[in-house]
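Review box. Two proteins, two foldings.
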Amino acid sequence: MTKHCSKEEHVESAVAITLSKHQFKVISACLNCSFTMVTRADHVLVATLYSLGTETGSDGKCDKNRLDVYNGRKVNDSRILSGKTGICGCKFPAKSEFQSTENALTVRLFTPCNNRSTHGELVLVVSSIPNELYNRTECPGQFKCLSGECIDKNLVCDGTPACKDKSDETNCTGARNHTCAGKFECGNGKCIDKNLVCNGKNDCTDKSDEKGCHGNKHTLMFVLIGIAGLAVIVLVIILIVLCCRYCCHGYASAYRRLA
């Protein structure tokens, strides 16, 4: 890589980048080497970390050397793809694949001037992939939000934003996703639990779950009042019967004593 510092190379298919060609894997001190790769206009570049084994500081930080991957041609913190801590050490980072959003990608190797030369090796494989192909395989069977995340395609145009940028709910007029199986579908396309219908609350946000519920509630109220009234009548009859039995039994006992 150090032989290509400040250069721009064209990548047609794939290329492997190594830190040093030295037989003892020596990495010189005081380096700030940037190398830019460019591919066709309708392609993107994907850099995959293949092997990693470089020295780190005593606290495990990339103080002795670090590799950074940037989106595009510029070395800028706002365009870094590999994280603010850099790539170094022997443990693979949580993210080991870095995709550009344009047809260029820049790799930078930095070593401070206050350190001696270090040893180590790192291999980064950079591949050129057509835009359409990469985007299709990034979210297989799913919907890709404009903000980058993948969501279930059944969540598109369902009335509830699932993407961070709400791109799954844009341009949905006349194309609502009718996937409210086992649920109530609101007028705005939102799916809610059937138990939330006619509960007096606007769960749909467009009040469609409460439409036509006034008469139903009154009917239910009358039915409940009728049942309660019938229960009271039955209870009164039972009390009367019990009282009659008690009174009759008392009169019979008194009559026998008088006789």
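Next protein.
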Amino acid sequence: MTTIRQLTMDDYRAVLDMQTGIEDDYVLNIFPKLIENPAQSLFGLMTEEGLAAVAGVFRLPNGNGILGRLRSDIRYQSKGNATALLKHIIAYCEQDPRMNWLGAITRKSNLPAQRVLDKLDMHSDSHFISLVMEDPGKVKVPAAAPWLPIEGTKAKRDAIEQAAKEVALAFYPYEAYFPIPYASAILEDAYIENLSVFRNTDASRIMVIQEDFKGRDIAQIQYFWPDVFEQDGLWAAVFHYLQQSGKQLVPQLDVLPETAFNIPAVFRDSFTKDDDPWLIYGRYIR
């Protein structure tokens, strides 16, 4: 008999006993933090053999939600468990009048995940490559004055909204690996207060740094134009920010594949090579 229910800390032992085939699986390791997070709901599909699959929804502002944390026990795969579990979570979200949009991201190479998302009537709306700068010390950019910080919640919001309007931004990188449809309503005061926003000298470009944690401390760089590697002052500001931080921050930047495939030589060795784009799937439920 198969049952699906929301997980609690009482299920931690069963989660740890799952064989996901992923070495040092961070989803299993951070399970307590996921359960404690009020924005995160985790569900499990139980069979007579045990916990066969885990997945959840992470709720974000303006009625957005990201499906994820999907893990299947390799002993019970190919039985439609992932599809059944995600269908249950979507139905759960549809009953919540606060929810408007559900999304999911997966690698272009992950054809099984794409087949599951197609069955869920979710559509691929955009794509990106997430560049991770593992060794910032290797970058030797020309000397330039760092971009200037923008102070104050209103000024930061105005700058982001203006930039988003200028580029007709469809998806906003609200967190690392959590892009959601852009709308000014997602820019809540508490969120903006934790952003560091910078502008160039003629105020024609802005850049945002958000500290995040995805298994390690990340400095997520938000930049909305394709010329990110032509902005020496931007990178001067990034490196100054890293030097001032008391954490070992790893810079991360979402770009279009064509930008990632044409990284200038001065940057190339500092970024982890990645030629497998992330696909953004989505579906409006209201």
